[in-house]
Amino acid sequence: MKNNIITRAKKLFTPALAFHTDIIVKKAQGLYVEATDGRRYMDFSSGLATTNIGHCPSKVIEAAKKQFDEIIHSGCTFRYNSEILFAEKLKEITPGKLDMFFFSNSGAEAVEGAIKLARFVTKRQGIIAYTGAFHGRTMGAISLTASTAKYRQNYHPLLTSIFRAPYPYCYRCFLGQNPDTCNMDCISYLKNILRYEINTDEVAAIIIEPVLGEGGYVVPPMNYLKELRRLCAEYGILMIADEVQTGFGRTGKWFACEHFGVVPDIMTIAKGIASGFPLSAVASTKAIMSKWPPGAHGTTFGGNPVSCAAGIATIGTIKADKLLENAAKVGKYAMNRLKDMQKKYPVMGDVRGLGLMIGIEFVKRGGSPDREFLKKVLNGCYKKGLILIECGIDKNIIRFMPPLITTMKEMEKALEIFEKAVAKTTS
Ligand SMILES: Cc1ncc(COP(=O)(O)O)c(C=O)c1O
Questions:
Q1: Which of 176, 377, 395, 408 gets the most CB atoms within 10 Å of its CB?
Q2: How many domains does the chain have?
Q3: Mean predicted confidence (pLDDT) in 340-352
């Protein structure tokens, strides 16, 4: 039966859309996914960092069902309660004064909205993005994305006036520096872009993932984001934090920026926002948003009533069940255990992360990426019922990104499976 479904799928869908496993789901609940062949898996991929409160959470289902009886689509014709209530709830959790929103459906759409907003209100064209960044697949977003040239192949020309700064990826510094002796040369590099390539008063925005996602689960040095914030403020450049992957509790706080004590001018939010219902948001201040007049941007499906109801229930569940605290606690435990493992297995070149956004970089002796090792570990985990996925340009980094509901016991079980797979591949 399984082969039959895969064969049918292959006839119907473009191969451009790659799948991480060939599991056919019968039922997904909480951390677990049950396949049609009877196997059960711990989903440490969280549906690409989206089912932050687990699969099919009861409160979200309840809220969605209730919403079905009222209205399921408005298309910017009518106002409805769930959208307004959700915006009010979102306003309570976004940092600083990010208290006005534009709702859309996906991360890429939110990124498109953010760059349009930045260009519109500053009347400047330049945008600085990072090497290693992933901001989505639409033409605007892909112009900012540089996690691999493969994603951009054959799509040129892309948006113009995009400039590229090196992400502060200290384990593999793009500038060849060593963290012990480096003086944040990546900030000097950024300043040079503003001297050699584009005037400060022509730059609309600098867009950054507060923790690099697809590009390798990289946590920047604490001071980097602070210095970036300072630079943006000095030159009237809008700082956009792409919190599509890092937001909604993933790092143990509502938004990763909070770890760095930084409030951006614009924030993009998606993925975990509505537990799998399509919804995303551009958040900004009243001062910025009020310069974006009616008609300057729009949407048919954005802010869908059911998605908003799901968003309200998602925020409610994260608060009621103290899931930020749980993510921080379970994440810290995992990080310590993985750091201990790292001492035993030199193939685990780097272990890094915040909360439940943890990356483990596999390397050969000498430090070059070890993709083959990773593949064996992933396969070993998969056979034992643990779904993990990879990231990074060389696909040699495993992401631990389970839902925020993961218990210590479940984390320990996953770590045991992972360690056995590493030990087996090492021997
Ligand atoms: C940081 C970041 N921005 C944007 C996106 C694009 O989101 P979507 O796939 O919902 O368009 C992603 C997706 O992985 C992401 O991680």
A1: 377
A2: 2
A3: 98
Q: Which segments of 69-218 does DSSP mark as H helices, in order? A: 81-93, 107-122, 139-144, 185-192
C-beta 107 within 6 A of ligand 1: yes
Domain span including residue 375: 2-56+322-426
DSSP letter for 212, please.
B
User: What are 74-95's pLDDT values in tens digits?
Assistant: 999 999 999 999 999 999 999 9
CB 399 near ligand 1, within 6 Å: no
| 210, 215, 219, 224: CA torsion to nearest 10 | -60
179 and 143 in a common domain: yes
| CB of 213 shorter than 6 A to ligand 1 | yes
Q: Go through 333-372 and write b for each residue having 16 or more CB atoms within 10 A of its CB, e for each that does not.
A: ebbebbeebbeebebbbbbbbbbbbbbbbbbeeeeebbee
Per-residue confidence at 427, pLDDT binned at 50, 70, 90? confident
Task: Check whether residue 386 and residue 327 sit in a common domain.
Answer: yes
Q: Which of 17, 52, 245 to mutate to test the pocket of ligand 1 (most atoms within 8 A of CB)?
A: 245
Q: Between β-strands 126-131 and 397-400, what pairing exists: parallel, antiparallel or unpaired?
A: unpaired
Whose CA is closest to atom 4 on ligand 1?
A: 135
308 and 208, same domain (yes or no): yes
Q: How far is the CA of 3 from the centre of ligand 1 (A)?
A: 30
**Cα(262) to centroid(ligand 1), Å:** 21
- C-alpha atoms less than 13 angstroms from C-alpha of 144 in its C-beta half-sphere: 29
Q: Is the omega angle on the peptide bond into residue 264 within 30 degrees of 0, that is, cis?
A: no
